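User: Please predict the structure of the protein below. I'd like the answer in structure-token form so I can feed it into my own downstream comparison script.

Assistant: Understood. Taking the following sequence of 395 residues as input:
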Amino acid sequence: MKQIILALGFGLAVSSFAQWGGGNFGGGFGGEQSGNGKIEYSEKFANVNYVGDGQVYHTLDVYLPKEQKDSYPLVIHTYGSAWSMNNSKGSADLNTICAAYLKAGYAVATPNHRSASDAKYPAQLHDLKAVVRFMRGNAAKYKIDTSFIAMSGFSSGGHLSSLVATTCGLEEGKSGSVTVDLVGSLGDFTSFSSCIDAATLWSPPTDIYTMNPIENFMGPGTYEGAFIGVEREGNKDKWMVASSPYYASEDDPPVILFHGTSDQIVNKEQSKELYDSLKAHNVVTELVSVQGGSHGGSEMYVAANLDKAVAFLDKAREAKAARVPDVESDDTDSTLVLGKSRLWNAKESYCVYSLNGMFVAKAPSFDGLRLNPGSYYVVATTPEGARRAFGYVKR
């Protein structure tokens, strides 16, 4: 009897995670793949290595919308796998979430990343940040409008995407005696920004220290423990530096979260925790509670939810465009001003990027006189790690 119960439990775990869909066995834990339609695109770039190391786990696919244009805003969508798969980009919710983005005019990139058995955290975060930089560095080749790049992800892919969204401008994550590199140095485009402009998260773990543990049916311990490299007991700091609510700050991009009230894998409080942290920092955010929604179930991907995700991205694009300031020089003072507030602050350090994400300068004080005329995106950081971002124009 015990063997039968164990077998049933294993089967339920697999069915809960692995929505294979369409006979595609290259993925796993990847959410609903079949959807109500089929992904439509004008062009696909397959198996592009975004690091240049020839590894399958560092490849991505790029899809361009059916309506052909000179360039497209971009959404990078990452599959769910409990951090345990390194080649599931072909099962990255293609016929549901990705199809909706493409139909709305967004280019879509679906990357692979290293699994927990390949490397421990923060390797997976380094992978996704390398993807952002790669897409910026190859914007012309893939027809990407780099003025708007968003992250999207299901389950563990949503967790990694939430970290990309909340760690812009931070080089290190610290908790207690633990310090991790949040940026990495992968690929040929390290001079480009890995910051993003919005995120759509589907059933994501966010604070893995507080979430209900997911027992690893492929090995001992939990999936979270395999991802971090140690189990939770006695290792709070190592788990905290992998939790996005811990990094929430006022300059984070807009974030929308979708979570089912009947999610049997990732408890619904996970999305609420990140939502509350973002709200506390006055970040534009929205939480969509899907009544009866299960983890990766078809009820999560009804047209109303997909439309809401697209509308959120559209609004974020409009808001970013509106934030580019109209800055004028003061004839009696060569320092440029934004509205009525000076940009220089002796208590902040500054990273300056062009609007296409190219790194321009880093300095302990902001000096607009050193910049060439043009439009810029600036991330200011205090010694305590508090960050703010703003647009800047020099005439």
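That's the full token string. The CA atoms of residues 250 and 281 lie 5 Å apart.
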